[in-house]
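Ticket #4471: structure output looks truncated?

Reporter: J.K.
Steps to reproduce: submitted the chain below (357 residues) through the standard prediction queue, then opened the result file.
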Amino acid sequence: MPKISLYRTDVADPDASHDVRAPGGYEWWYFDAEDTANDRQIVAIFLNGFIFHPGYLRAYRRYMNRPTRFAPPLPQDYACAYFVVYEKGKIRKQFMAQYPRADFIASMESPDVRLGPNAMCRDDAGNYQLQLSGTPWKLTGQGPKLLSEERLCARLTFRPQWQHRPVEREFLTRAMTRADHHWVIAAPSCDVEGTIDVDGSALRFNGRGYHDHNYGSAPIGPGLKRWIWGRVLTETKAATFHVAVPEDPKLPDERHVLIVDEAGIRDVSTESGEPIRFNRRTVLALAYPDNLSLSNELTIRNPRVIDSTPFYLRLIYDADFGGQQATAFCEVAYPRRLLWPILGRMIEMSIDKRAMG
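Returned output as attached by the reporter:
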């Protein structure tokens, strides 16, 4: 009997779409950047299968528990676009919007993704052009509320510092998650410029940025207790890392540390690094490290939380990167919390689903 392909591995470019069609699967293109002169940071993500969508996770669990009774939930049914602007250590504005599967278009030839009014492509010069537009939301006493009269828009250009071919590697192992997970390091150091339209003002953005790309055959939550990811940029090199802590205490932590410069990408994951101590906590009891030694040449310390939710944090650390001082932009996530019913409903209230009809 022929096997059904869960995703494509024969794509022309690792940063192009892998046409993920696995129930519970996902593919996302991630971009972030920092404008240090204005103490401003941005994150933009194009998601085919938003793996932190509570509705998607519920549908996947129903299907896995009773596969003959429930239809398999597919990534295209939960396609979303996300954009957030941070300023001076706080959220300035953000949106998360879900679109019908017909509105999601992605090329298997090159990085080219379209999702409603949101789009990302790599032009002939090798630069990534991003266009973002959505309705922002804010948290109120009754939960998240869409600001229907407002729009958050941006046009941004990410110019890679080096023209390396994207490198693909394993993200999380099957031993931990019982699924396939892939990580594409596409453009880890970029010059970024553009315009952000927010609160009636057009903000000029000039800074440094990062881009990677992930895809997999099932949610990342099963088997995962917590996960910390981050990147560090200097004028001459970049580092990107993640550490996954398994629920099974018999399994070791999974640590990946990559350093990139003009010569290429070095994997320093096996270099000595201290065990992680999640010794700080938010008011919602999310733990995160006070400091983290990732390799012989990369240490981060002095965290500042810029975004705190019941299941993930975004933080900025001071970084010592081979004797150079920089900042580390990081996330800590607790995916299993997404199965909490009340939290799930709160998260879904923040997702603009009006395009779904």
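Triage note (M.O.): checked the attachment and the full token line is present. The chain has a mean pLDDT of 93.
Status: closed, working as intended.
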